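Ticket #146: bound-state structure for iron/sulfur cluster.
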Amino acid sequence: MAGAGHRARTVTGRLPRHRSLAGPARFAARWRELAACRGTDLEVFFPGRGESAGPARQVCAACPVRQPCLDYAISNRISHGIWGGLTERERRALQSRWVRTSRRDRDRAILAAEATGYTAEAIGRSFGLSRTSVTRVVARADRRRS
Ligand code: SF4
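RESOLUTION: The complex was predicted; output attached.
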């Protein structure tokens, strides 16, 4: 089995942080190739009601790409199956933390752009938000500061 001999890695609900996008993009394209579950019976990763997640967790524990797998499942809101060694319920707990962290980072970036003079329209275009949403983020930060 691919990945045998690898130590189990701890996974977290943190957002991935990268200095440049080139490396992560290359890795993102490759992580599935390195998956320990590649070529195994994928049925075990989708246990039915009352079935154990144990066999899937065992494979995941030795998987070298556990974290990117979990990041992928959380960021794409995949609600079924075992990803990164975690069940749906376990991922849901991480998901809300992930969303909060993601929103906080986005708001910081919006405020930084606003501080450098970008208009709410321009910021909204970059973040896929309406001008009103950007204005709301800025107003919320102003209220916190006062
Ligand atoms: S962590 Fe993800 S990629 Fe690795 S074995 Fe488990 S399900 Fe497959």
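RESOLUTION NOTES: The chain has a mean pLDDT of 84.
TICKET STATUS: resolved
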